[in-house]
Amino acid sequence: MTLSRAGLVALTLAALLTAGFAGPAAPPPRVCHLPKTVTPAPEGTPPAAEIVRDAPTAFHMLALTWAPEICRARGGDPALAFQCHGGNFGFVLHGLWPNGAEGRHPRYCGPAPALRAATVRRHLCMTPSAASLQHEWAAHGTCGWATPEAYFADAARLWRRLRLPPMAATMTAGQIRDAFATANRGLPRDGVYIKVADGRLEDVRLCYDLRYRPAACPGSLGAPDGAQVRITPRRPR
Question: What share of the chain is helix, strand, coil (3-state, %, to 5)?
Fold first, then answer.
């Protein structure tokens, strides 16, 4: 008997659940235990070599970071203290990126004063680092949004729509792609870019058109389907 791709995906997800990993695909958590005091990160100076203000936006990417891997590699970074020691995060929002055609992307398009504490607090469960929120607004938000509040509102709307599939200790990049496409109706599997470093999952990046509809990613999809990917486990609850 030959199974269809949908059948194989269903069996893969069933195996993950049987193995005791996270439950069925679920929306991102909207609540976490915020620290009593939230301090915005200071305004930074854009790296001159990374400033690109003349590249039009061709599509958008919503980048999700697998927090356990970042914490494994950089857990001692004070900027990641809340992400790595203040909760038990799985996928977190890296950022919403306006991307250009042919690999030239708009970045650091204007001034980016420090975010208001209320803005940081509102989105810290989504992107659990004040420094990361400041960076995403400076590097990406200034290239398409008039205010940080408008930028993070669009990012949060896309984030809340997602359903996050369970992750096993080892998967192929193709299985990760299939899991996201199956969990999120309308998301094409060629709209899922997977970033792997040293064989470990770092990011899953989802592509959208200019109207924020799921779309195929132009060019590379990152790790090829057959690549074996190790997935750093979350801390025990």
Answer: 35, 20, 45
